[in-house]
Amino acid sequence: PAGAPRRRPPAAAPCPPPPGPGAARRPGPAEAGPTAAAAALWPPSSCRLRGPARSMGLEPLFQAWSYFRRRKFRQCSELCSQLLESPPGAQVAGAGPGRAAWNLKTRALTEMVYVDEIDIDEEGIAEMVLDENAIAQVARPGTSLKLPGTSQGGGPSPAVRPVTQSGRPVTGFVRPSTQSGRPSTMEQAIKTPRTALTARPITSASGRYVRLGTASMITNPDGPFINLSRLNLSKYAQKPKLAKALFEYIFHHENDVKNALDLAALATEHAQFKDWWWKVQIGKCYYRLGLYREAEKQFKSALKQQDMVDTILYLAKVYLRLDQPVTALNVFKQGLDRFPGEVALICGIARIYEEMNDISSAAEYYKDVLKQDNTHVEAIACIGSNHFYSDQPEIALRFYRRLLQMGVYNCQLFNNLGLCCFYAQQYDMTLSSFERALFLAENQEETADVWYNLGQVAVGIGDLNLADQCFRLTLVNNNDYAEAYNNLAVLEMRKGHTEQARALLQTASSLAPHMYEPHFNFAILSEKVGDLQRSYTAALKSEEAFPGHIDTQQLIKQLKQHFAML
């Protein structure tokens, strides 16, 4: 780092110059930093620097940097801790290697828990219930993600393609936004760190503190690496390289958005508001705090100074959180004018169209993604899913086989391969694919999905006893599987067990009120046993879940005629 005082090199035997043309100047041991560490490698073993050079820890620092470059962050952090725990007297003038080790350890700890803010974004309970950013309570058709069924893109009906609780069709690739309606993925608390490793300790354990220029640079194995309460942010804001590493540590590792925002504000003020990177970080802090309009201003200001793909993605994410998908689409398309062929922007457009139930437009943009990157897993999976639900299992099978050739090897892929093989009448591969899926299942939810699909295959070949067993195995692995309850109720109805069927249908409708099948089946069953009032109530719920269902409309019409006769 700049400012390290120079010292006269110790007397030693003359050494040969470094290889290649240039001066034969030899660096002194007090020239701290990567250049001195690298230059210490070129003299032959008989002429290597001894004494002061080794006491400064250049070689361990170089090894720690090598660990960092190879993404071995744990070893890098431990080696930097050993450097920082050396007594202050062992670090000669300037403490250059100590400061470099502190910076390197900060970056290593950040990388261990780093989460890309662009893609990983799940709307929690607080955002959904306490949303004060709504512009219009009744949005125009095709302009809101909260009413995806109002899209004019001609999306598939729930009779063909199942939908999530939010009303969106099941996609071919799991993302946080596609699971917003599942109870199992709701956030347990409103504001918590992402993982247990990022939780900030309440107290700092006592121990031997090593001072490196300031009292805030604390390295203790039993306590926090940096004591944020004693941090002089204005001092670090004047050192750009140190400030950026410190900001990312506070923001990602400590999850302390307020202190990160204070540091970013001081740093951008020190840079005279000319550094676009700090504006993006301020926008990220505002977004995390729920101040979306302030985040929008920061991202727009950063884009005026420097065009960056990440900034465009952040700005579009702000508009999506504000439920303005059309504005987000415009941002993406303007970005494509400046970055033609950028995969992240094209994929963002495809995701928005898919969430708005405009499946045909989404498929076209996913195909554009594959023209730029033919190994894009999300695009291949979504196109394959679209072909499967469009009654083209043979084409879907080609896409899923492509994923298998690319090295994707998991339970979900073999589950989809088994379904595609069955509906494409390639029965020899169906059961073997499902067996492999059961073998690769990592949790009970995945096992339940496989058994449910095996039950569907059993229904398709007419083996109702096997189907009954498969659906019951589904409920053994996942007791909240509404589709299995519904199908078991249908099988019980065929056996004549009316009361058991009604109980199963009531359970299914309470677990998944967004599905129309349990409501419709319960309405049919109640109408047969003469419970017209319950039948009418269930039929209305079925119509609300799927307004275009013809059988539900005919049943409501018949019930109204019965009521008129009474």
UniProtKB/TrEMBL annotation:
Which Pfam families is this protein grouped with? TPR_8 (PF13181)
Question: Does the record carry Secreted as a key word?
Answer: no
Q: Which UniProt keywords apply?
A: TPR repeat
Stretches of Pro residues bias are at 11-21
Bias-annotated ranges (Low complexity):
22-38
InterPro entries referenced in this protein's UniProt entry, alphabetically:
BBS8, TPR-like_helical_dom_sf, TPR_rpt
Segments for region (Disordered): 1-38, 146-189
Q: Where are the TPR repeats?
A: 482-515
- Any one Gene Ontology BP term: non-motile cilium assembly
Q: Does the keyword Methyltransferase apply?
A: no
Question: Its GO CC terms?
Answer: BBSome; ciliary basal body; non-motile cilium
Polar residues composition bias: residue spans:
176-187
* Xref: Gene3D superfamilies: Tetratricopeptide repeat domain
Under the heading PANTHER family, the entry gives: TETRATRICOPEPTIDE REPEAT PROTEIN 8
- Would you tell me the protein name for this molecule? TTC8 protein
Question: Which organism encodes this protein?
Answer: Urocolius indicus
Point out the gene that encodes the protein: Ttc8
